[in-house]
From TrEMBL:
Name the record gives this protein: Chaperone NapD
Highest taxon of the lineage: Bacteria
InterPro entries: Chaperone_NapD_NO3_reduct
Family (UniProt): Belongs to the NapD family.
Record function comment: Chaperone for NapA, the catalytic subunit of the periplasmic nitrate reductase. It binds directly and specifically to the twin-arginine signal peptide of NapA, preventing premature interaction with the Tat translocase and premature export.
Alphabetized UniProt keyword annotations: Chaperone, Cytoplasm
Principal location class: cytoplasm
Subcellular location: Cytoplasm
Species whose genome carries this gene: Shewanella holmiensis
Length: 85
């Protein structure tokens, strides 16, 4: 039996006055990690067991107050052998 690991990265455009709140809320998402940021943009990396979990997290980020857009710029999936994490 094999599992999948999906990884995606997003460019998230944020209203400057909402950046601190948006950063805090994204860091609270279990599978999300902030990779880089400036005063209006974040790069977010999300990992998950399937494409649906990634899309759910992207929808969550898109719905945050202050987020202008969350655009996927990279997606990779790979099969994991049993026992791999």
């Amino acid at each position: 039996m094999s599992n999948e690991l999906h990884v995606t990265s997003l460019i998230v455009q944020v209203q400057p006055d909402k950046m601190a709140d948006v950063r805090q809320q994204i860091m609270a998402i279990e599978n999300a990690e902030l990779s880089a940021n400036n005063e209006v943009k974040l790069v977010v990396v999300i990992e998950g067991p399937n494409q649906k979990s990634l899309l759910d997290d992207i929808s969550t980020i898109n719905a945050l107050p202050g987020v202008l857009s969350a655009t996927m710029v990279y997606h990779q999936s790979e099969e994991l052998e049993e026992g791999e994490i």
